[in-house]
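Q: Convert this sequence to structure tokens.
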Amino acid sequence: MHFFAACPKGLEELLATELATLGGGEVKQTVAGVHFEGELDTAYRVCLWSRLASRVLMPLLKIEEISADRLYESVHAMAWETHIAANGTIAVDAHGVNDSLRNTQFTQQRVKDAIVDRLREVSGERPNIDTYTPDLRVHVLVRGSMAQIALDLSGGPLHQRGYRRNTGIAPLKENLAAAMLLRAGWPEIAANGGALVDPMCGSGTLLVEAALIAADVAPGLLRTHFGFLRWRGHQPQIWQSLLDEAEQRAANGRKSDSARYFGSDRDGGVLAAAKQNAQQAGISGFLTLHHHEVDKAHRPEGYTTGLVITNPPYGERLEDNRAAAPAYIAFGELLKREFGGWRAALITSDESLAHAVGLRADKRYALFNGALACTLYRFDVFASRPEPKPQAPLS
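A:
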């Protein structure tokens, strides 16, 4: 079977590697996603375990020389009764336009009409529309003269893990946070017993995602809905087996992990949200949170190595970025004062803010925070060198 895992731009290489480790075959990157092959259990495993994917789609039909009438006829001819009960619920998401299909809402309506008409003709009943948790979510992509129809096996965006109930301003999406941690080398640092510090932690997304990675907790384990659960092709026994395995791995991982996640923020309100999110994720006992400014943070006692990673304030407006500069300067001073020998990383859309840190980045990775082009800067913070002893003058 052929599948497609969508992701934010900039994550394709990481996602391709992840899919291969999850059993995907014939892995092939494209813009904002990765094609892969496998049995149905492979797609289930990706839905459950991918930390990077946004959606998992199962293509059903490709239509060449697309037009509004050809789209309707091709979709109407499909055996939708094998995918959904006639009295079930559907939703259609459309993306892309061309000369014949100039409006995504029109495309959605044509596909809905075709599915509804097909089911009504076959059974005498018609499905209802549910845009939130439908029995079947259909994805339509129009690109040039071609359209592709696919089932959305994920249902809702996979970055919505289920633990984040409260956020601050401009929250970091969970899959972007996971990508930052992977690019910064957190899995290796965690395996070597290092700690993680976020001195501008906001609602704690980086802290929680780091703990889920280190404790081997499947990111989809807290989700209550997937798109395949009420699909007629769903195989519950396979899914239950994967869930049981993930539950056991999470239980083992939480037992072996330690309280090595340290966050702080100037905003007490978002710290309360971080605590609630950590509790929802089942890792609150691993976190230590403090309410103070960046320059008051310090190296956690007992740890000689680790990762300092953060999502500091930035935006599209120049005046906002100028106002944010002191936080970056303070972050750089903190690294040099407290974290010699550690790894550090931050994401920002403004290169001048990254320069304000005062350290040379050894790696840079292009990422997107929503539609905003950003860069992840990775630093190796060198330990302070002792002052050289004065030499006696030569006689």
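Residues 88 and 127 are 5 Å apart (CA to CA).
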